[in-house]
Amino acid sequence: MYTLFQTDTESEARRGLLKTAHGDIQTPEYMPVGTQASVKAVAPRDLEAAGTQIILGNTYHLYLRPGMETMEEMGGLHQFMNWHQPILTDSGGFQVFSLAKLNQITHDGVWFRSHLDGAKIFLGPRESIRTQRMLGSDIMMAFDDCPPWPCTEEKVSEAVERTLRWGEASKKAFAECQCDGCFSPTIKQSLFGIVQGASFPHLRQRCAEELVKIGFDGYAIGGVSVGEPEPEMYKAVESTVPYLPKDHVRYAMGLGQPHQIVELVARGVDIFDCVLPTRAARHATCYTWEGTLNLRGAVYCRDKQPLVPGCTCYACQNFTRAYIRHLFKAGEILALVLLSLHNIHFYLDLMRQIRQALDNGRFGEFRREFKLRYKTTKD
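-> structure tokens emitted (379 positions)
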């Protein structure tokens, strides 16, 4: 499933290939987030044109709407959204964290109050895996418990033990689905485990080592980008990676800013997902190689430059900063479409350049140059 080609001589950065039922994924790579079977403001056609290799869908949200009966009748998630490349679905476990006020954790899973209509629903390892099976994602995630930040060591330890118990139950449910005829439009699916442990290195180590004993097709680093300072996030990753097998893919969940991605690639991470490209676009924030710029600024009123000179995305090839600023000021939907497309293109181009640098044995140089050039504060 995952082939490691090479490791950087100056860091833990890796170059590899991840095989799935719907296609191969060159790594390191970024996944655009399609929470509800749609990457906000970007059509599948445009994602494909930008070079997207894989997208992410949200099990919890798709379970609620449109629901699994509809999903089965429509032929699964790929067919439903007309996306025929790889899809990874999260397990719904993150909603244990993000919807804490609407849930109740039990030994076997979580009772939720639907954020749509308040209906009471239960989601545990078995339910999550069977839902992902019906969605037909290429990569499923084990059900886990993501603790908030900050959190006491006792609470994090409880979350780790729950994650391990649910991880084992997820694998059991995954095996059962292969045998009992549970509908799936994707015959060959994979299951990834998720490492929790917050910023406690010994809990990260325990969680990683025990998940490896259970055995998964790949491993994710969870519980990061949940409000902790950036140094804590790096620490969590550094406390996890050494205990993950080198011949399996590594996925940092919910990360991150461009400079964070470069640094986490250097720490041995292979796959990323993040809502920032489209979320930032909705706030008129544009990613460039020098950092971000906000197009609402008056300085761009008559700026004839493209968003990023030299960028090959549709927005940059056809429109000026002045025009896209005008669209934002006028409240035109096209502003969101163009800037979302550009920001996703920027992230994918960043990953392409990282892969090229690794291929050429110059990732260390690329990392240093990027750090000097990219400013992390907004203008």
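The chain has a mean pLDDT of 95.
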